[in-house]
Structures are given as C-alpha cells and as structure tokens.
Automatic annotation (TrEMBL):
It comes from Erythrobacter longus. This is Molybdopterin converting factor. It comes from the Bacteria. CDD domains: Ubl_MoaD. InterPro entries: Beta-grasp_dom_sf, Mopterin_synth/thiamin_S_b, ThiS/MoaD-like.
Amino acid sequence: MPRRTWHPSEVELNQSLNVELCGKLADSYGGSVTLDISPSGLPVRELFEAVSSAYPLLAPILAGGRIRACVNETIVPDDAIIRQGDTAALFPPVSGG
C-alpha cells in the first residue's frame, strides 16, 4: 500500500480567535482574550463556555446570562456560528440617555 503524505492544506488546523472584552468584562484580563477554534467554528453558547473555562474570572459574569455577543460588528443569538476570521466581542448590558 502506498504511503500517504499529509500536506498542511489537507489538515484542518485550529486558529486563534481574538475575543474583545467590553465594559466590566475587561477588568480581569484586559481588552481581549484569545481562544483556539476549529475551522468549522463554534456556536456563541460554546464560545461563552470556552471563555469561562479558559479564563475562570469571567465565568461568574458570563453565567449570569446578560452578556451579549457581537460577531463581525452585529449582535448575534446564542446559536450563531463564529468562524475563523470573524471578529468577536462580548459586552455587558449598557444604558444611556
């Protein structure tokens, strides 16, 4: 049987996703955190879980259910998929006048 050589273009590689943290979320880790995501992406609800796991000081705030996600500058629901190359941000409720 011939031996197969794998080329990087044939292998799905995880890439880093930079997640901007807004408002009080930035207090613990600064303005952003980085996660590795697969090429198939992940739903926003899994992004919350991944951030909570990798950055435990954010877990209580994210568990409260009031934090929203923005992907490519658009507020998205929890079932939206974040893909490699997207921009992502998490932000707490805001009020203004």
